[in-house]
Specification:
233 residues, 4-stranded antiparallel beta sheet, mainly beta, elongated
Length: 233
């Protein structure tokens, strides 16, 4: 997701999708690797060695496939897609190092916010201080903080992540805890920067050159608005 795009980027929304030299309407469906599955689809070989048009080992260029806007993240992107892996449907595209939010089984709105090497807790819109440790129990979905305190409005809170949100929350929290240096006990899988895929259902066929940069935009936004209209790439 592009940082300057202030609206949510949700599954089943329509975007103006630019790829190659064409722009077409498309419906987006976002998904991510299922937590705990193999990350074999992430090739360690940089895209520049794959022979993509415009790829260069010497640094960013404006050529297709290795633009200046994506050169920093390009080497982290997979160069193949593993159809044998399991993937998790997500309702909303997550922006890197943004807060992780969910409603726990007791109805409390839980928000974990990264801030300069710290992880802060907010419950029902009220700041509750710093989280220095997280402990997750996979069978029950219970998530506790330091001293076995619940992430809830009372000490009697069950502090359980609902099943529908469980995999998404754990997947994102693994990365936030790593960047904030907060121990996260019980989370399965390696702590890698969250990776998201998108299935684009185009309204008409278009030419798709190998290695193209794909940009999803909301070009129907008010042109006089100061908001960025590019949503994701």
């Amino acid at each position: 997701k592009i940082n300057y795009f202030k609206s949510t980027v949700t599954t089943k929304s329509k975007f103006h999708v630019t790829l190659g030299h064409q722009t077409v309407m498309a419906t987006a469906h976002f998904f991510c690797p299922f937590p705990g599955t193999s990350a074999s689809s992430r090739s360690k070989e940089p895209a520049a060695s794959k022979g993509y048009p415009g790829a260069s080992k010497s640094g960013p260029t404006l050529a297709m496939g290795c633009g200046a806007a994506v050169s920093e993240r390009q080497n982290k992107w997979p160069t193949t897609f593993d159809f044998s892996n399991n993937y998790l449907h997500v309702e909303e595209l997550w922006q890197s190092n943004s807060p992780v939010e969910y409603e726990n089984s007791d109805g409390d709105q839980v928000k974990l916010i990264p801030e300069t090497g710290k992880l802060l807790l907010e419950l029902n819109g009220v700041a509750k201080g710093e989280v220095t440790e997280l402990r997750y129990d996979p069978p029950s979905g219970q998530l506790l903080q330091q001293e076995s305190l619940p992430l809830g409005s009372s000490l009697d809170s069950r502090s359980v992540i609902p099943l529908k949100d469980r995999d998404r929350v754990v997947y994102l929290l693994r990365w936030l805890c790593t960047t904030c240096e907060v121990p996260f006990e019980g989370a399965l899988g390696e702590a890698e920067e969250p990776l998201f895929y998108v299935l684009l259902v185009l309204e008409k066929p278009v030419m798709c050159p190998l290695g193209s940069l794909v940009i999803g935009s909301k070009l129907d936004f008010d042109i006089h608005s100061p908001n960025c209209r590019m949503a994701f790439f």
